[in-house]
């Protein structure tokens, strides 16, 4: 099969998959963001953070919530990488340099995930699992929440109430992104993808390199 044919099949299959999934998955997302009932886990998170889950926010408060969460995420992730040599599962790696740590923290918090490093030789397991992987979830959830707030803004022309950012963030993470992750994890396990807490393994390539 030629490269052009393979690319065409991939694009067509992607369009077909989206056409099949958008209706059902879109309806599910709609029910998630408009629901008024909170699960026990969600209520526990709201109490821990100190959020009134039943109170809606104006666009200004919603925007400040987004910026505050993102700013805290950047600072936490930056400190995480700079202090990794003192953390578990650091694999003996030194702290991530300040400019790489700052660039990575901003990148992953804004969901661009631009990497200027090799993860296997720069960051330990804990930083990648509890830092970068967490931002893969919550930064995506922030983006979805902002898109939902934009839609609410168009739909609610007679009010400035755009929902509650903290509720949107929690629900999107727990009810949408986490189930997708579980399904993808099962697929990867079936495919034999390896994940452990061991250090790196040196292998000899076919060309003789390592």
Q: Main traits of this protein?
A:
0% strand, single chain
What does this structure look like?
- The protein has 210 residues and is mostly helical.
- It has one domain (14-185).
- The chain has helices spanning 3-34, 40-49, 59-82, 98-109, 119-122, 125-155, 165-190.
- The longest helix is centred in the N-terminal third of the chain and has 32 residues, at 3-34.
- The model has no long low-confidence stretch (mean pLDDT 90).
Pick out the low-confidence regions: none
Structural class: mainly alpha
Beta-strand level of the residues, as a percent range? Answer: under 5%
Radius of gyration: 21 Å
Q: Give the biggest beta sheet.
A: none
Fraction of helical residues:
55-70%
Tally of strands: 0
Distance between the termini: 32 Å
The quaternary structure here is single chain
Shape call? globular
Short description:
The protein has helices spanning 3-34, 40-49, 59-82, 98-109, 119-122, 125-155, 165-190.
Write the layout of secondary structure elements.
Blueprint: H1 3-34, H2 40-49, H3 59-82, H4 98-109, H5 119-122, H6 125-155, H7 165-190
């Amino acid at each position: 099969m030629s490269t052009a044919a393979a690319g065409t099949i991939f694009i067509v299959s992607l369009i077909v998959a989206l056409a099949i999934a958008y209706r059902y998955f879109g309806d599910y997302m709609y029910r998630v963001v408009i629901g008024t009932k909170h699960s026990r886990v969600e209520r526990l998170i709201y109490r821990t953070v100190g959020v009134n889950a039943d109170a809606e926010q104006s666009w200004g408060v919603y925007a400040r919530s987004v910026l505050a969460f993102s700013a805290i995420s950047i600072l936490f992730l930056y400190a995480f990488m700079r202090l990794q040599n003192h953390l578990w599962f650091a694999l003996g790696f030194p702290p991530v340099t300040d400019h790489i740590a700052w660039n990575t923290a901003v990148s992953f918090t804004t969901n661009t995930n631009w990497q200027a490093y090799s993860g296997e030789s720069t960051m330990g397991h804990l930083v990648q699992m509890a830092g970068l992987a967490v931002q893969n979830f919550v930064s995506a959830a922030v983006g979805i929440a902002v898109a939902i707030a934009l839609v609410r803004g168009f739909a609610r022309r007679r009010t400035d109430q755009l929902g509650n950012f903290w509720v949107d963030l929690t629900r999107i993470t727990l009810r949408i992104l986490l189930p997708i992750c579980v399904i993808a994890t099962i697929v990867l396990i079936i495919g034999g993808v390896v994940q452990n807490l061991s250090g790196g393994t040196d292998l000899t390539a076919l060309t003789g390199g390592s």
